[in-house]
Amino acid sequence: MTVGVCRITLRLPENGSLKGKRQVVRSLTTRLRNKFNVAVAEVGDNDRWQIATIGVTCVSNDARHAQEMLDHVVAFVQHTRLDAELLDSEIEVTQAF
Q: What is the residue range of 80's domain?
């Protein structure tokens, strides 16, 4: 079993409140879950309204598949969220068991 984990940091320059941030994060997490069938959650910067850190994880039987899936997730975030700027992304794929 292979587990892929990705941390995505976004800057929300047009955002002016935590309520606006929640709307952007909720929309993005729902779209990622539906499109890629991955687990998604906001994992950091909860009290900062212009920065969002999102964690994405997937399980696969092939490390290459997990890496490719998370690469597609990052590309999707980068190209579809016009109100969010991708600051950083990290992907780690590990073998479990």
A: 2-95
